Amino acid sequence: MTYCVGLLLNAGIVCLSDTRTNAGLDNISTYKKMFTFEAPGERVIAIMTAGSLSVTQTTLARLDEAAMDIEATPETSILLAPSMLQVAEIIGQTLARTSQEVAGRLGGSAASASASMVVAGQRVGGAMRMFLIYPEGNFIEATPDTPYVQIGEHKYGKPILDRVVTPDTSLSDAKKAVLLSMDSTVRSNLSVGMPLDLVVIEKDACRISESRRIGERDPVFREMSVAWSVALKDAFSGIKV
Amino acid sequence: MTYCVGLLLNAGIVCLSDTRTNAGLDNISTYKKMFTFEAPGERVIAIMTAGSLSVTQTTLARLDEAAMDIEATPETSILLAPSMLQVAEIIGQTLARTSQEVAGRLGGSAASASASMVVAGQRVGGAMRMFLIYPEGNFIEATPDTPYVQIGEHKYGKPILDRVVTPDTSLSDAKKAVLLSMDSTVRSNLSVGMPLDLVVIEKDACRISESRRIGERDPVFREMSVAWSVALKDAFSGIKV
């Protein structure tokens, strides 16, 4: 499985993904699920992926190839598309086409060719936007009412987001929120695992402001995880029934 | 959907169930999912149900009828069975038979005849035991390593159980833990809803020690829910990244 979460805040965008993939419980690997495209100062795009690895890898490779093509046009390249909406449309179309091709090859086999993506970013002069792209290529968008999107194993990590994240949340609190959301998920679902990839995009920077891989032994993450456990137990002790 | 959780502790048994049932999102009702059978001082059994209402109601009615039958035997009545294991077996057989019958009537329709149950209790002289009974009638048992079982929407409410519940947890803390576990679930899944049914069975009492319905406006539950929200936000603020 997978857990990826993105927050769209007034101060910027925060994205966090895990790296565990599995084909059955006996075949576990580490693959990056966080991809960034940048024309620094002009546009920045972060993409997170969940689902069939063959579909997500091929989709990303095609997006990359289309963007690097010397005959690329605003209709084909996410680095030339005139708006984040059109970036989402190019990605949705590429994902749906790839997924259909793979599904056709799989025929009646039990393997799934389903995949979904989170796409977030900003083009200079435009607003920051964040989309959840479904396997069929259609999408929904994060809004002030629900300023986050999740793909993969979303349940364990959702309560903390619902409690602490609003559009006014600071980037520093937002990083904490997604890391604690991930911590709850990693604890409960073996198919979500370390290391993690964190990307922060400050508003109007139109470039990656922070990109960090957080390993199993990362002292800051471990300390935060332990402190959260202790704080939760203390909070529990303090409640009267 | 449903959320039911049972804790098997050194001090006793704590069971909590919601009451929401739905046939589609446009057909929501309130049905009890907590049932108790008692021969006070000799045995006590609590049963919680999840899944197809027609299956769980018929299963409970059959268990009740078999227990009330003047020709009841230890093989057919959960009030006469010589051990909690055999109580679980009678319930498992009745559930599986009812489920198969309903599935047969449903034929190829999309409706499900699947249901699961939590069975907990004690017979005088025996140990307290707690079983999760699967739709096919087989079951697993709570152990000191994992002193709780859940049926229905288990994900949202699991992290708090994993963090605070051990076999040594007091009954008072256990009540708090299941209520907070339910609180997280009710917040996140609309198909789990108030009122709640709480049952506590103290060790070796062989009777229901406490049985309480907790309504939407229950002041203690509301206060706890608000206090937990505040405590979580405070805990969040206190964490440094």
Automatic annotation (TrEMBL), chains A, B:
This is Proteasome subunit. InterPro entries: Ntn_hydrolases_N (IPR029055), Proteasome_sua/b (IPR001353), UCP009120_prtse (IPR016545). Pfam families: Proteasome. The keyword Cell membrane does not apply. Coiled coil: none annotated. Gene3D superfamilies: Glutamine Phosphoribosylpyrophosphate, subunit 1, domain 1. It comes from the Bacteria. Keywords: Proteasome. GO terms for biological process: proteolysis involved in protein catabolic process. GO terms for cellular component: proteasome core complex. The keyword DNA-binding does not apply.
